[in-house]
Structures are given as C-alpha cells and as structure tokens.
Amino acid sequence: MPKIIVDDIEVEVPAEYTLLQAAEMAGAEIPRFCFHERLSIAGNCRMCLVELKGAPKPVASCAYAVRDCRPGPNGEPPVVLTKSPTVKKAREGVMEFLLINHPLDCPICDQGGECDLQDQAMAYGVDTSRFAENKRAVEDKYLGPLVRTSMNRCIHCTRCVRFATEIAGVPDLGTIGRGEDMEITSYLERAMGSELQSCVADLCPVGALLNKPYSFNARPWELTKTESVDVMDAVGSNIRVDSRGREVMRILPRVNELINEEWIHDKTRHIVDGLRRQRLDRPYVRENGKLRPATWNEAFETIAARLRGVAPERVGALVGDLAGAEEIFALKALMDGLGVKNLDARQDGTVLHPAYGRASYIFNPSIIGIEDADAVLIVGANPRIEASLVNVRLRKRWRRSPLPIGLIGENVDLTYPVQHLGAGPDTLADVLSGSHSFAEILRKAERPLVIVGQGALTRPDGLAILAMAARLVREFGGAAEGWNGLAILHTAASRVAALDLGFVPEEGSLTAREMAQAGAVDVLFNLGADEIDVAPGAFVVYQGTHGDRGAHRADVILPSATYTEKTGTYVNTEGRVQLANRAAFPPGEAREDWAILRALSERLGAKLPFDSLMQLRQRLYAAAPHFADIDSIAAGNLAESIDMLAGLGDQPGREPFRGPIEDFYLTNPIARASGIMAECSALAHGAKLEAAE
Amino acid sequence: MAVRRLAADEIQPKSFTLSADAEAWAQEQIAKYPEGRQASAVVPLLWKVQGDCGGWLPQKAIEAVAERLGMPYIRVLEVATFYTMFNLEPVGRHFIQCCGTTPCALRGANDLMDMLRGRVGEQRHVTADGNFSWLEVECLGACTNAPMVQINNDYYEDLTPEILSRIMDELAAGGTPKRGPQQGRNASEPLGESVTLVEPSLYDGSMIGAWRKRFEETAPAAEANAKAEGERATQQAATNPKPAKPDAGRVVERPVGDTPAVRAAAGEKPVSTGKQAAAAEPSRTTVAEGKPASETVAPPRSRKSYVNTPVKPEDGRTVADAPASPDSASVQTSGTEKTSGS
User: Fold this and answer.
1) Can you give the three-state secondary structure of chain B, one letter per residue?
2) How far is the CA of B244 from the CAs of B154, B234, B237, B250, in angstroms?
3) Is residue A692's pLDDT more than 90?
4) Residue B338: pLDDT band by 50, 70, 90 thresholds?
5) Where is composition skewed (Polar residues) in this entry (chain B) (predicted)?
6) Which of A1, A76, A105, A471 has the most CB atoms lying inside 10 A of its own CB?
C-alpha cells in the first residue's frame, strides 16, 4: 500500500483511496458539500481543496486518487497539506462563491442548526460580501408531498440527483439549464416516484430540499433525540426519533451498515402524524352495541366477567404486526396461565412455524450478506415495497457487478433489471427440476440466494412452496459451507420475535384464520392485530393504539403505547435482536402493553410473575437466551431446517403469487391514521391509474 | 441567456411520433456507439427531431426521443435545456440568430438588433405570418466579417440594418438571398485594398535568407550588450542588494498614523499640547481633524474582511478596528501593569 504524508503525518492507505479518505485516515478533517461516501464522486463543489506538493494548483481531494500522486524527487511519499494558508485561502474563495447566490435565510430556514453550509461558513466564511450584482433567484419546484423545496438555497452539489439515480434507482431528478441558470428539478415538476425519496432532504447539505411535513415545526436544538428501531416493516431500520415534550416531531435514519446503511423509506419517516391521530387514549367497553368510554377497572371487570366459565379451548389470542417481544412474551405467559392453546401471531396466515427450526423462518444470509450473493432468485416477493432497504441492498449488489436475478411472481419494477421467470409455483417447480434455463445459472453460482416472500407463504399451499424453496436451496448449493442461501422475507416487525417465542398454535389448536371465523372461539384477545377480519360472535378484547379495524370490532378496548412510546425489543427479518427506546409517552390513560397485561392478569386470576420491565426481561432472556444478545443474530441450523422442510408438502396449486401488500403506504394502523401517508397513497394510486391508461 | 423552459402547454402538439426518416437516422447514429450505449446518440437524435419539428423541440418529441433511447425523460430534458441550439419554443420559418459578442457588437450588431426589434418584435417572438423570429446569441465564429447573423443554416456577414432588412424581404418573398459576406468581398479577404503583405519585395525572391543575414549581422553585438548588462547587474547586486523598484507591485508601507514616534521621526515635537487636550476630551473617544463632520465613518469590521477600511491612517482618525488588534495588546499591557503594581 502506498504511503502518503498528510500534514506531517505519514499514513499507509490503499492506492484506490482518494486524498480525502487518506486525509481522514490521518485525522485531518476535510470540508465537503458534494462528496458523499455512498454516492458517486461529482467533484463540483470544490470545498475539499487541498494542497498537493508538486501540483500547480490546489486539487479537489474527493476526486484525486492516492495512486495518481507523484512521489518526491528521491521517491519520498507524496505530501498533502490540508491546513496550509493556500488551502485556507482556496476554501475561503470557494465559500465566497457559494455564498454569492445563497440567500441569508438562516433565521427562517429549517436546516438552520444542522446545515453543512452554515457550519462550514463559520470556518471559511467572511462577514462581508464583495458581490454587488443582483442575486440569482430560482423558482421553487414541486417534488411531491414529502420534500419541500427552496431552490434559492441550492448550491448545485447534485447529491439529490445522484441519490435518486444511483441508490433509489428511480431517476426522477435532474439538472436543467446550465451555468447560472442550472436548476434541480424533476421532469415537469412531477412528484418523485421513489419510496426512498425523502432521503434527499437528509442528503441536501443546505436548506434547499427539506422535510415538508416537518416544515417550520421545530428547531433541531430543541429536540430530544432517541435512538430507536423502525417497525413499519420487518427490516428493523435503525432510526432516531426526535421529540419535543410529549410529541414526536420527526424520524431520521441512523447509520447501521448491517441493515439500512443510512437510508430509511418514506413510511418509516413520515408516519409521524399517524402517531398523534386516531389514538385510543382511554379504555372503552361495548354496551348495547356501542362503545363507551370506561375506566380501566370497568374494562378489566368486563373481561373477567365474560371470561368466567369459558373453557380454555374456546379462548384465543392474536398478536399483530407491531408488537414488541416483551408484550408477546407477557401475553403468552398470561395465556399459558389460563391454559389457552389457541395462540397465533401470523394474522396473514403464513405457514412459517418454529417447529422447523429458526433457520426456516429468518433471512439466513443476513442483509449485508446479500452483497456476497452471486445469483438471486426471488420467489413471491416484491422487496421494493415489502422491505425497501433489502431492495436497496440488492440494487447495491447489482450496481457493483451485475448478477443474474430471477423473479417468480408479479412482474414488478425492482429498480434493477430482473429476469421474470414466471408467475406461480409451476415455474418454481420447473427451476427445481432443472428444466428451466435459470436452474443452470443457479447451479453455476457459488452463493445462490433464494428470497421467499410472504406472497408465496400465506397461501393454502404455502408449506409446499416453502418445501420446494428448501429443496431448491439444497439442490443448488445454497446451504453450503459458509453460505446460507435461504432467505425468508417478512413484512411484520413482530413476526420473527413471535415465532422465536413460540406464539403459534400447537398441533390441534386453532390458527389465526380459524380463530377469526364465526363460532370458533368465545373470547379473543387481540394484541394489535388489525389486518384480520374477526367474524361476529366472539367477544373481542382489543389491546392497541389506534381506532382501526381491530378497535371497531372490539368489545373491550385497552389503549396501549406505540413503538415510540415504549421500550421494546424487536427482531427483524434476519433474526437480529434490536432495542427500541422510548421517545415520548402514550396519550391519556394509555399504558405500555406489558403493564396492561400484567394488571389484567391479576384480575383474571393468573398473575404474571413480574412487576417491572426488568423482571419481565429477565424471564424473557431465561426463556429465550438469544434475546439478550442485542444487535446480533442467533443463527439457525439451516441444513437441519432444510432437511426437515424438504420432505414436507404435497402438490402446490397453480395460482400465481400475489404480493401481501396492496398499498405500501397503508400497511398498519399508524400509517392508516397518517394524513401524509394517505396523501402519498392517493398520489401513488393516481400514478398507477395514469400508467395503466 | 435566460432560464430555458419548455413551451407553454397551449402550443405543445398533442402527440409526436418519430418519422421513418428520423428512425433510420437514429439507427445510423446508435450504430456508432457500443452496445448498450445508445444514450450517446441523444444529441444527434434531438437535432434531427428539432429539424423535423420546424426548428424546435416539443415536449412530446423529447419524450419520444427518451423512449427511443431507453432514457428517463429527465435525462433528455437535461440535454435539451443545456444546449442553447435546441429551441424549446416555436421559431419562425426563418430563424435569425444575431451574434451579439464583442467583435460584432463593436461593428454594429446593436443596430441590427434594433432593426430586428422594430421589424420582428422582441426576441423569441414569432411574427404573425410565421416568417421570422430572432435571438441574440454568443459568438458564431465569423468575427472577421462582423456583424453577422445566422438564418436557419446559413451565415450572412458584413451586415448593416439595411442589408439585413433586404435579405429578410427576399426570404419573406420566398427567394434565396446570397449567403456569406454581403459587401462585395470574397470570404474573409480584406474589404477594399489590401493593407498588409503588399510590399513587392515579399514576392520577388529578394527576401529569401534575409532574416538569417540580418541575424548574423546583429547577433554578436546584442550578445555582447546582454553580457555587459548581466555583469553590471551582478556587480550592483553585490554592493546594493535592493531590487530596482521596491514598491513594484507591492503595497507601500506608510506610517501607521499620527503617533509621537512618527512625529519625532519627522522632526516635529513628539507630543503636541493641543492634541493631548483634544484626546483627553471625555465626550469623544476619537479625534478627527481637517474633515467635515458629514463624512461617514466606516462601520466596525472584524479582522476577517475583504473590504478595506476606507479610513486613511493619515487622516489622524483612530481606526476603528486596526488589523493588529491593538485593543487586545493594550488590554494585555494594562493587565501586566496591574500584576506588577500589586
């Protein structure tokens, strides 16, 4: 590796490093606007100028490779100065040019306080302007309901354009005109079409692209920042929840190279208003067909009275998509205490079951492992809307070096080219038998990856399809040494934790769909399951956060806390255990779920053996030790699971796979309560109609 | 140049399809580039389509090009708005591009533009009969024959407003006026008599070898002269190391102000009683002499400023924020005095 001297410090760096990276290795900080680690290099802001000994002019360190530096006359390492007077003067000149057309908006700009230009102007700016001409003025652009523009502030770094083109894969943004008249816009100011579009507001180093719903709501320095985990899908993106007082103001991504890098999708970011609307803030009891507000005591009494004398076989419990591991564990403990065996957390009817081993229901290769795959087969999934960040990773892998990607299911646009093999299980069978040409590709691949989505598993013949996928992985070397090629893509944040904790019916007990049928059970505990229709007849106790489908069907409503209002453990689709911290408090009389279950258990005569979250977690960790191992994955035994699965299942049906998500923006009660999500959904729906014409 | 946008919706055609001709052209252009790099043909294809559309690019045409080349619409729009030779609005049948860059401007381009403004209207305005529209453009590279215009694909040079008007009349009548220079010269030959390279000796062969001969005659003397000058300079540098002109290109250092040291150096009394009394005046902290009261005082500035403080030190005025920050220095001295006193 070549050596280079940065500010008298000699460092050894890979030859392909840029001077900027080398300088950072040596501990020198280089200001930048256009450069971003995850985007291509543009080199147009010139803020990162450094002095390179032997070069006639300062060079842009972000675009100058270490291997392009010439050694000294006697073979000394190249010398870079990042703090010399020349460098300072050069950067001051750049800053002066940038500020010539930048409005003095800082007091009314939402970026104020977290603005790269503001920060760097403190180091390289001057207090006066020598520019006496007219400033440039640019019309603001419409870019959709999520990103507000203030284009006078734009410094043309083109990070947003590069993000849309490279990472999101939806090239909506571009620069029109040239020179002074250059403007960033979408084609004819249409709304951006990417599900990651609001990330451009994070990338914008100035206040040109802003978070529209959050506009003029708060200042960054008055917000309390809480590190948390997203529950909108099963990816478990790392987020930072910014709250002021009791109110969550915005949600931002947190860097986690293993999961979401530094992106989150729009639903994660913009359901903030959904956390305030339609909230259940007190218990309700149904009387004469109508729900009326009640006290906690009344609600508990009603449940206890109804439950008296009901046989455990006539009682069931459901867990919804947003529940944390703690409340699943508490509900399971309560149901065990009552002798209830009808438990199910799989309201969508998926066939995954812990009986086949942990490897049978997690994303075995892990999300970062996608980057090692050399052939991908996607079965019955649309990762773009089911797990956008997994799709980003697939796209990243494809961009690095294109690989064959086959898709069995709906022919959707995944932002990278895929080979659409077919629509249903027939094609999967063809690939498995080797009669399809893609089988050869999988056979040649060293690390084939088979992604199975819920679209393939929630069908009546789901088990047969899972078995076929397992045989496929075994057949094509997907479970070889050092490689786990079977990847189950979940859509519910609670699902893997629930499967880990065994919240599934035993042999002979009722599944979620069976419980929802008329006359199946007399009393049904519903912990936030809003995606299932419970037939009339059963007495439903709904414990949840929003006045959604589950609450409308309920006979007793117990108001609880959303994921930002409680500390909870979530396990993502990879099986990675993550902690979400409390950023705000539940509204009104609503309480944290585990505490509600603990209080209810006392009334029902099956008192739960813990009085605090810590005690609960102790028992949880004792029951399932891998939950204590935060931020890591307890790997399952894939070979064993595959052997178990491969023998299962009979002949699959012939119907094509259908995606489990109808509307990306409205998949859970929080999102359905959000006005922003409704707007996005209407816009996406309109765009779909337009495309169909 | 101004912000370039697509034409208004009312004048946009409702549809556009690539003609067979344009498609053949597209295939020819795409074949020039490697497989999968068909987007490289965007400029030729847009140019072709602009010709087919009567000299401008409608929105639907841009979209058709994008679809033909498998590019996102915005990428083609970027190209179409970048190059000013792509017109985004309808132009006249005879589209006049009038060069307004310096050589043409010096030779009367502004008169041409005044004439066009009177006859056609403002730039980018198409006359009612659809015949003309005009645009001021940057240098078209015919500076020797300035002023000039380009009408569609032809140059008309050596213009006056009258000549241009006549050309336009002829074009409007359906004629084809003479292209190129309009005042009787061929290409870029001089107007009228040649004034350079006219000496007959240049052409009779007598100059062959003349330069070398002259060089051989004068070179030894010049060499001796240079050598002597070099020696003189070396000697002078040894005895007097100052450069010839100390202030050449440099800031002349002037005395900082009306200080006792300066006065002493100038042979005056270091301390004048009048000035002392004025300085002791409690209502004023600065002393200004010989200036009218209406003179504005420079606002205070930080040390990091590009604008020089307009106050001249000679004026006897205390400079508000001197570059060497005398304030901090005085604070320091007073501090040390205190410690030494106690």
Assistant:
1) CCCCCCCCHHHCCCCCCCCHHHHHHHHHHHCCCCCCCHHHHHHHHHHHHHHHCCCCCCHHHHHHHHHHHCCCHHHHHHHHHHCCCCCCCCCCCEEEEEECCHHHHHCCHHHHHHHHHHHCCCCCCCCCCCCEEEEEECCCCCHHHCCCEEECCEEEECCCHHHHHHHHHHHHCCCCCCCEECCCCCCCCCCCCCCCCCCHHHCCCCCCCHHHHHHHHHHHHHHHHHHHHHHHHHHHHHHCCCCCCCCCCCCCCCCCCCCHHHHHHCCCCCCCHHHHHHHHCCCCCCCCCCCCCCCCCCCCCCCCCCCCCCCCHHHCCCCCCCCCCHHHHHHHHHHHHHHHHC
2) 58, 13, 10, 13
3) no
4) very low
5) 331-342
6) A471
The average confidence (pLDDT) of chain A is: 92
In chain A, which residues have their Cβ closer than 8 Å to the Cβ of B74?
171-174, 185-187
**What is the C-alpha separation between A231 and A579, in angstroms, rounded?**
11
Would you say residue B258 lies in a domain? no
pLDDT category at B306 given cuts 50, 70, 90 is low
Q: Which of residues 53-72 of B touch A (CB under 8 A)?
A: 59, 72
Q: For chain B, what is the radius of gyration of the CA atoms?
A: 36
Say whether pLDDT at A242 is over 50: yes
Q: Are residues B69 and B109 in the same domain?
A: no
Residue A106 φ/ψ, nearest 5 degrees = -45, -40
Domain limits for position B154: 94-181
Cis peptide before B147 (omega within 30 of 0): yes
What number is the average pLDDT over the span A627-652?
87
Indicate the residue of A171, A178, A183 with minimum beta-carbon distance to B75: A171
At B294 the pLDDT is: 53
- A188–B contact, CB cutoff 8 A: yes
pLDDT tens across A57-81, in order? 999 999 999 999 988 888 889 999 9
For chain A, what is the domain count? 4
Domain boundary among B55, B82, B109: B82
More confident call, B55 vs A477: B55
Is A242 inside any structural domain?
no
* Strand-strand pairing, A247-253 and A238-244: antiparallel
pLDDT value of residue B13: 92
Write out chain A residues lying below 8 Å of B77, CB-based. 174, 176, 187
Give the residue from A344, A394, A346 showing the smallest Cα distance to A368: A394
Which helix H or strand E contains A124, and what residues bound it? helix A116-124
How many structural domains compose chain B? 2
Q: Per-residue pLDDT tens for A291-348? A: 999 999 999 999 999 999 899 999 999 999 999 999 999 999 999 999 999 999 999 9
Domain end residue (candidates: B181, B202, B220): B181
Which 282-341 residues of chain B touch chain A by CB within 8 A? 301-302, 304-307
Q: What is the pLDDT of residue B283?
A: 61
Q: Render pLDDT for A364-408 as a digit per residue (tens, 0 to 9).
A: 999 999 999 999 999 999 999 999 999 999 999 999 999 999 999
**Does residue B286 sit within a domain?**
no
Asked whether residue B109 is domain-assigned, the answer is yes
Q: A131 at the B interface (CB within 8 A)?
A: no
Helix A462-475 vs helix A425-433: crossing angle, to nearest 10? 30
pLDDT tens across A522-533, in order?
Answer: 999 999 999 999
Residues of A in contact with B78 (CB under 8 A): 174-176
Task: Supply the range of the domain harboring residue A627.
Answer: 284-339+508-633
Cβ–Cβ < 8 Å for A457, A380: yes
- Structure confidence by residue, pLDDT tens digits, A571-607: 999 999 999 999 999 999 999 999 999 999 999 989 9
Q: Touching check for A130 and chain B: CB below 8 Å?
A: yes
